[in-house]
């Protein structure tokens, strides 16, 4: 999986200078840390996520995250059974949304990231120090009219119109939804 993560980030053409700096930071992290994809890698590790959209209905599926208390895209930690970053993002999106048949946006049949986001979290527990998630974000397209099924990982799970995102929603999630909307229009 480490090789795939390096390939995915190396091959990805970024949108702007900020994303390019993050991409290079993520690659440096992976070069320095063979364990850089796993939750046990501290103080930072790679995570994978996907914003689930239904372009035919102009809507996005968000989860109210129990630890963060905000509406977020689906995502989380890479697991040993994941063979690629894209597979980790798709697994997380499918588990957390309950929707079968999600497809990640890609180029030439290969899923590609659309955005990177570095943020502080307390994923090791509330009594442990914060660490950094180096999130690699994808867009997952749901079948038209898909119905979501809440998982134990969510306080709430709902579809929202692109222009009617709930509060509190992180600005990085709003940017990701805008990008997904543009890419699937």
UniProtKB/TrEMBL annotation:
Cofactor(s) needed: Mg(2+)
Keyword Electron transport: no
Pfam families given in the database record: NUDIX
Entries under SUPFAM superfamilies matching the protein: Nudix (SSF55811)
Annotated Nudix hydrolase domain residues: 43-182
Family annotation (PROSITE patterns): NUDIX (PS51462)
Gene Ontology molecular function terms on file: hydrolase activity
Keyword Hydrolase (UniProt): yes
This protein's UniProt keywords: Hydrolase
PANTHER family named among the record's database cross-references: GDP-MANNOSE MANNOSYL HYDROLASE, MUTT_NUDIX FAMILY PROTEIN
Name of protein: NUDIX hydrolase
Organism: Kitasatospora camelliae
């Amino acid at each position: 999986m480490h090789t795939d993560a390096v390939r995915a980030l190396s091959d990805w053409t970024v949108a702007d200078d900020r994303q390019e700096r993050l991409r290079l930071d993520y690659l440096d992290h992976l070069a320095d840390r063979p364990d850089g994809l796993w939750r046990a890698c501290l103080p930072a590790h790679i995570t994978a996520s996907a914003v689930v959209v239904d372009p035919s209905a102009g809507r996005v599926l968000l989860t109210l995250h129990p630890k963060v208390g905000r509406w977020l895209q689906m995502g989380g930690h890479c697991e040993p059974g994941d063979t690629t970053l894209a597979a980790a993002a798709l697994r997380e999106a499918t588990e957390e949304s309950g929707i079968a048949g999600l497809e990640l946006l890609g180029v030439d049949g290969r899923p590609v990231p659309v955005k990177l986001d570095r943020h502080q979290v307390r994923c090791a527990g509330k009594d442990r120090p914060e660490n950094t998630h180096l999130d690699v974000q994808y867009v997952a397209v749901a079948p038209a009219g898909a119905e979501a099924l809440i998982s134990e990982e969510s306080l709430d799970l709902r579809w929202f119109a692109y222009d009617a995102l709930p509060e509190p929603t992180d600005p990085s999630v709003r940017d990701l939804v805008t990008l997904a909307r543009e890419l699937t229009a």
